[in-house]
Specification:
With 219 residues, this protein is α/β, with parallel strands linked by helices. It contains eight helices and twelve strands. β6 (121-123) and β7 (129-131) form a beta hairpin.
Length: 219
């Protein structure tokens, strides 16, 4: 699981990283909100945000995150215990407000509750299965279909947006992890992934983007 951590207390940040990396989390750390803002499109599964940090504060960053993504869990960690601030955090879209000081174990529990991938499998057409937690694609014979990194990111993005059209811009931001690319490169990626999936799994939507065609949502 990939997590963005915004925390300007270096000691606390190091403790969080050390604890979460032991649980196989991948952590990108930022001390400045402006730098974190530049990275929010990089395909994170969870956001952990302090409020009072240099640059852009954590609540403003949360608001920006929710403009482009209203589903990825966000946990606020802050020494600010004013009721209005806490209410504002929830209004802006946080899933949990963890008051400092806290035990690292508390944060781990919140991550397990809100951020851990609880979905297991998505059944595609013709008996193909995508295992979300393991990021593996299995064919109808339960054999693994090898996927490149961008193909995995693209499937992950589709699973987060079932029954929704993904635009070229959304695919660029998530799959290219903040780097710029072209629509031609996106179409080429779609073409490569289509070759590994059953016919009509990825459907073009009139030049606007693509939608994932599934048999049923979860198994």
């Amino acid at each position: 699981m990939k997590v963005l951590l915004l925390e300007d207390n270096k000691r606390l940040s190091s403790l969080i990283v050390e604890a979460l990396e032991e649980k196989n989390y991948k952590i990108d750390c930022f001390e400045d909100g402006k730098k974190a803002l530049e990275a929010i499109y990089n395909g994170y599964d969870c956001f952990i945000l302090d409020i009072n940090v240099p640059g852009i504060d954590g609540l403003t960053l949360l608001k920006e995150i929710r403009v482009m993504d209203d589903k990825t869990p966000a946990i606020i960690i802050s020494a600010n215990v004013e009721l209005e601030t806490i209410k504002d955090a929830y209004i802006k879209g946080c899933d949990e407000y963890l008051k400092k000081p806290f035990y690292i174990y508390e944060l781990e529990l919140k991550l397990d509750k809100f951020c851990k991938k609880t979905q297991n499998n998505i059944t595609l057409l013709e008996g193909f299965i995508y295992d979300i937690a393991k990021e593996k694609l299995l064919n109808s014979n339960k054999e693994e279909v090898k996927l490149a990194k961008k193909e995995i990111l693209l499937l992950n993005l589709f699973t987060k947006n079932l029954e929704k059209v993904l635009t070229f811009e959304q695919i660029e931001q998530y799959v290219w992890e903040g780097d710029l690319t072209t629509n031609e490169n996106i179409r080429a990626l779609i073409k490569r992934l289509r070759k590994k999936l059953p016919l009509n799994t990825l459907i073009s939507q009139g030049g606007m983007g693509y939608i994932l065609n599934i048999q049923r949502k979860f198994t």
